[in-house]
Amino acid sequence: xxxxxxxxxxxxxTVYHFQKxxxxxxxxxxxxxxxxxxxxALFDNSIDIQRGLVTALIGPSGCGxxxxxxxxxxxxxxxxxxxxxxxxxxxxxxxxxxxxDVISLRKRMxxxxxxxxxxxxSIAENVTYPxxxxxxxxxNVLAETVxxxxxGAALWDEVKDRLKENALGxxxxxxxxxxxxxxxxxxxxxLLMDEPCSxxxxxxxxxxxxxxxxxxxxxxxxxxxHNMQQAARVSDNTAFMxxxxxxxxxxTQTIFTKPGSKKTQDYVTGRFG
Length: 273
Ligand SMILES: Nc1ncnc2c1ncn2[C@@H]1O[C@H](COP(=O)(O)OP(=O)(O)O)[C@@H](O)[C@H]1O
Ligand SMILES: [Mg+2]
Prior knowledge:
- This protein is an alpha/beta fold.
- It has a domain at 15-118 and 187-268: P-loop containing nucleotide triphosphate hydrolases (Rossmann fold, 3-Layer(aba) Sandwich), CATH 3.40.50.300.
- The protein has 10 helices and 11 strands.
- Strands 1-11-10-4-9-8-7 form a 7-stranded mixed sheet, with helices on both faces.
- Residues 65-66, 224 line the site of magnesium ion.
């Protein structure tokens, strides 16, 4: 891959370590801006998110990580007074085009939130839910999905004997892996994760990180984290954001060891947070 580093401390210009427009692009964010009413939260952001890799969005609290993540599957649509500018393309189609069906867009981009949010139903029903909504009734197909997705989320061995128990009885870490299994059940292209470990203890966190490493290659994963060690452990590429702007984007190792922007350097070395 071509690399070109522009050392630039001016916060209006993103420092890129990647050339735009590579074949491996799954999500093309192009001059994307967003306003909550009068308040602008995202400023003219452009990056390519690469297929099958794990991309971390890092930056201090309130810099717009969740806003950008939630824009990718149009979760923000539900907010009154929201305005956007620019484009976001998933597999080359602008997700804001009039003919885009938002429900199917969200199916292609599964989402995992900070707080695990399993449905108040059995463990098995949580992962068959997306199929049942689609009208799948075949018992074999449903049973196969339960096993495949729970194995895929590294949860099967822990729950295979209690599939009919209520999911709310699981530990927080198990609940979060169940939410990942549920997201996988819809057979998405992309998994969006917003600080998926922030409500979990260190052991449960490691299990989720291991799982993310296993899911690499099968899905395009975008993970928001304020934990820089976590970004360094799980991601291939990292975008550093500050006050609504992607300041720098590149290979995670580059961002952490040879950042091109002073602001990135100050953040990754813990000078502010
Ligand atoms: N629904 C909303 N309405 C108005 N402002 C919002 C809303 N959600 C977030 N914001 C504002 O947008 C900015 C970015 O927030 P957010 O994306 O949550 O940041 P982060 O995830 O990096 O902590 C913040 O200033 C926040 O207060
Ligand atoms: Mg957030």
